[in-house]
Amino acid sequence: MKPNKEHKERNKGGRPKKEATEKLKYRVAVKLATADYYCLLTKAHEAGVSPSEYMRECFRNGYVQERLSKEQSDYVRQLCGMANNLNQLAHKANAGGFTEARWDCKMAVARIHELLNMIGI
């Protein structure tokens, strides 16, 4: 049996290695007063991220964008569900005339506007 000269790397599976630019290899020690430390913890908790990730976002962007709250994500789900209703209204308007679907369309638009205001968009 001849040894195979072309040795192929076997995929061992698992997570791919990070690039050098993606690795978090530098550590910066910062001393904070008690009030500043708890302020950092509070802001990180409100944003839904760890304190370290909060600080990284501050360095990158100068601000940290909050994640959507559970209530806001529920509103987004409701908006996604309304897409089906809008498609049905469009089909109804094309099939039976626009005057029949007018009131339903106005109600849907009002509800979408209300949900967008609740989300804060």
Molecular structure report:
The protein has 121 residues and is mainly alpha-helical. The protein has two domains: 28-67, no CATH class; 70-119. It is 61% helix and 0% strand. It has four helices and no strands. It has helices at residues 34-47, 51-61, 70-96, 98-119. Helix 3 runs antiparallel to helix 4. The protein is flat, with a radius of gyration of 26 Å. The chain starts with 33 loop residues before the first helix and ends with a helix.
Please give the domain count.
2
Query: What's the overall geometry?
Result: flat
Q: What is the quaternary state of this protein?
A: single chain
Give the number of helices. Answer: 4
Helix residue percentage:
55-70%
Q: Residue-averaged pLDDT, rounded?
A: 80
Radius of gyration, in Å, reads: 26 Å
Distance between the ends: 69 Å
Elements, N to C (H/E): HHHH
Structural class: mainly alpha
| Beta-strand proportion | under 5%
> How many beta strands in the DSSP annotation?
0
Low-pLDDT regions:
none
Largest sheet: none
Question: How is this fold's topology laid out?
Answer:
Layout: H1 34-47, H2 51-61, H3 70-96, H4 98-119
List key phrases describing it.
121 residues, mainly alpha, single chain, 4 helices
Produce a short descriptive summary:
The protein has 121 residues and is mainly α. The chain contains 4 helices and no strands.
